[in-house]
Amino acid sequence: MDRTGEKQKKVVYDFICDDLYTPMKFKEMAMLLQVPKTRRQELKEVLEELEAEGKIAVSRRGKYYKGEAEKKTGIYRATRKGFGFVTVPEEETDIYIAQEDQGGAFDGDEVEVQITGRPSGRNREGKILRILARGHARVVGLYQRKPKQAYGFVIPDDPRFSKDVFIPEGKEGGAADGHKVVAEFLSYGEDGRNPEGKIVEIIGHVNDPGTDILSIVKGYELPLEFPERVQNQAVRVAKEVSPADMAGRKDLRDWQMVTIDGEDAKDLDDAVSLVMEGENYLLGVHIADVANYVQENSALDREALRRGTSVYLADRVIPMLPHTLSNGICSLNAGCDRLALSCIMRIDPNGAVLDHEIAETVIHVQERMTYTSVKKILEDKDEAERERYQDLVPMFQRMGKLSAILRKRRQKRGSIDFDFPESKLILDEQGVPLEIRPYERNVATKLIEDFMLLANETVAEDYYWQELPFLYRTHEQPDSEKIRALAIFINNFGYSMHVGQNEVRPKEIQKLLAKVEGSDEEALISRLALRSMKQARYSPENTGHFGLAANYYTHFTSPIRRYPDLQIHRIIKDSLRGRMNPEKIEHYETILPEVARASSELERRADEAERETVRLKKAQYMSRHVGEIYEGVISGLTRWGMYVELKNTVEGLIHVANMTDDHYDYDEGRCLMTGTRTGKTYRLGQRLAVRVIGADVFLRTVDFEIADEGELEDGKDNECETGCQ
What we know:
Blueprint (H helix, E strand, L loop, with lengths): L2 H15 L8 H7 L7 H13 L3 E3 L5 E3 L4 E8 L5 E4 L7 E3 L12 E8 L6 E10 L4 E8 L6 E5 L8 E3 L11 E9 L8 E10 L5 H9 L8 H10 L5 H4 L3 E2 L6 E4 L8 E8 L2 E9 L10 H9 L3 E2 L4 E2 L4 H7 L7 E11 L5 E12 L2 E4 H8 L4 H6 L4 H21 L8 E6 L5 E7 L3 H23 L6 E3 L5 H12 L14 H11 L5 H10 L5 E3 L23 H14 L5 H42 L5 E10 L2 E6 L4 E5 L8 E4 L4 E4 L5 E3 L3 E10 L4 E6 L2 H6 L3 H4 L4
Parallel strand pairs: 5-7, 13-20, 14-21
Antiparallel strand pairs: 1-2, 3-4, 3-6, 4-5, 6-7, 8-9, 8-11, 9-10, 11-12, 15-16, 16-19, 17-18, 19-20, 22-23, 24-25, 26-27, 26-32, 27-28, 29-30, 30-31, 32-33
Helix pairs in contact: 1-3, 4-17, 11-12, 16-17
């Protein structure tokens, strides 16, 4: 800046520093300083420079004031609605960013943000000053070529990218109108322009089978193919179990044990056994010894760490390890000798673990069981199924009894069980959704869940007291403000919960869920309670698990599909073999923080991709049922309408514009939509009949309108069509 500019800055800065100055907006300042309209742009630039230097700050209302502006560095997370949040490492609360304060930032960018306000009881507010690093080099979307023009645009699949990407002539990479593509950014749209890019990959035509999910895979940058080096290494290590492999291991091949999984599961990483020792139970949880085949820092290991987890999408599984291992030598297939890491627990009749042994073992699974089959044996008392597995029935009966004891014990200490119905999607060979239904938890799924939870707790407690480096699965106390907001909200429905000064106990949330069980508002309050919680994550520090009301917890039972479990197995094996010397301890202390961070992030990416494919298939399914009538429950209320969830787990919106019988206002305090003329009300948890009026596959949304209850009664039974029976 020249001398004149510096002089202008000094004048303006001295003006703001004057004791008589009160914060004011730009227009007021220009008038007081007698800046003519023709030179106000100069004043604007002077103020921007002073702000950039941190000498002045500007409030959310646009008023300038003296003082060092509080600045933070973090990752910008955009929302579908235009605004966003900046997440700052090691800080509990995010910073709210209004749409006009984004400063050209995209979702995932590392940014510098200035704090502009601290509204009471809400997130801090801020505006983005600088983009430090871009989070995405590529975007996935639909290519549309302008008619009779040589250029086109890519419309991003992710609605958080609010601008289409301009593709100039010669940069289309052979793509035609209607292709789903991957575009690489050439510029990010400075000065309000559209971003510019070039097409680097054609996924397929928008109407081709499989293109929809493949687009999600590419959008989340999920690695599909394994590098050749990794594949070759997997083939080399996948040798059948030999006598040399068994040397020094505890031989459990004569133990009666089974795997229990879903019908379509191929990567079987846990087996269970159970015998009685007097009045005590001897429970064995036997986990595939993946660490025997995936050596630390090998090509296989580096690729597993890069992936972090297996990803289960609607039409495919993207595994953490090549199928040669995950479905082969590492899978505890019935009738095969397999290497395992076993946690064998002696449990008293009240469910307390009296003692335990963690050992490297060799096992031989007798039978590959399914949840359906075990349910038939234990719950349905199916004679044919009992006859088929007559040798195993006594063990399953013991397992059923122990499972109930363990569950009761967990509930007594306050463990929270969010029993949400997950969606089960049935697709044809072309990926077309034929059926959607809730995925039911039954006695068999709960049995395995109970045994795995106990093994995870037992292993975590053991290594905590050994004071060795370890990786824990932690779940911190909920944010006190969110809990207090929940407590106020449930009062509208006649419920209450005790909230201490600075904390809430898991038992209180558990009691609340028990109170609402079976009520119209059960699903709603359960979801709100869940949203008030923090996300579970991996950490080398043990801070306990709030949701399980557990002092010690880890992930030990799924090393085929989760990297933290594999990492833990290595620590356990080094400990068992006496190799945990000071150098080894220092090594683990060095690497575990990064393993925890990366695994937590990759888990969130996988969860988001899985949810996105479910939303996509639900929208596709409902698009073929436009005009049909269903029964649902009001699951959310906003000023723009009501969200309704059907029995098949599909959620859609009744927009206020489609509530034509009256003008409806949203009463946030009372959780009501009220008609101004008729006084008619709609409340959360209320059941009502809805008609499907549209489904947007691109946006993954479903639209409803209110239907007459008589139409539901007189019409065909859509409930059965959606697979809810």
